[in-house]
Amino acid sequence: MKAGLAVLASGRGSNLQAIIDAWEQGTLPVNMVGVLSNNPQAQALRRAQSHKIPTAVLRSKDYPDRRSYGQALVQQLQAWQADIVALAGFMLLLDPVVIKAFPHRILNIHPALLPSFKGLDAQKQALDYGVCVTGCTVHLVDQDMDTGPIVLQAAVSVKPDDTEDTLAARILKEEHRLYPEAIRLLATGRLKVCGRKVEILDEGGNYLD
Ligand code: GRF
User: Given pLDDT bands bounded at 50, 70 and 90, which one contains residue 209?
Assistant: First the structure.
């Protein structure tokens, strides 16, 4: 039985597109159960619709507080029978009620090598700091922002003439490769969480050397 995957996205949805592409090519063994956005104008919603994936919009301003927004989110995800949730540019911090409903089942992608450059504008933060190497991180989501156990990372060199846009584009290319891979590992039961560490098991459920 394939895991049900829901994606939460607020904007452009290029990571969602990479996930859809992998799913359609048969390299991501999940059921795409739905795409949810807090933003009715999100391009991510149109991408989902054009692939006949169910969509839903939950606007935070329609709820009195983060807790009740989180409860509505959980209700929708459960109605879709989601087993795992991928945040792909979802711009709201999840209430603990969501984290508790999907323990170690929520992934996020961040455009920096965590724990460096958490939060917004990670590519600009990396350029301003003057690092030579940055990249992207897929991690399990816990109650704080960009702090959960790390699943996969990819490094990207910073070039002397990089702008925020050129650097972001080079990182994005790695994001599109890394995110479907991390979701595949979670969906096929190949991640074992031991405290902060995430072990990747081989296809037989044994530790990789
Ligand atoms: C990506 O850079 C991702 O790492 C960050 O938000 C951005 C979303 O881009 N969390 P897109 O909507 O997937 O194109």
Answer: low
CA angle 166, 133, 87 (to 5 degrees): 70
| Domains by residue range for the chain, with CATH | 1-102 (3.40.50.170), 108-209 (3.40.50.170)
- Whether 124 lines ligand 1, by a CB cut-off of 6 Å, is no
Q: Is 135 near ligand 1, meaning CB less than 6 Å away?
A: no
What spacing in Å lies between the alpha carbon of 90 and ligand 1's midpoint? 8
Give residue-wise pLDDT tens across range 128-145. Answer: 999 999 999 999 999 999
SS3 166: helix
Whether the CB of 70 sits within 6 Å of ligand 1: no
Q: Which tens digits make up the pLDDT trace of 3-45?
A: 999 999 999 999 999 999 999 999 999 999 999 999 999 999 9
Q: What is the pTM of this model?
A: 0.97
Give, using CA atoms, the residue closest to atom 2 of ligand 1: 111
How far apart, in Å, are the Cα atoms of 124 and each of 74, 120, 145, 198? Answer: 33, 9, 18, 28
Question: What's the gap in Å between 143 CA and the centre of ligand 1?
Answer: 20
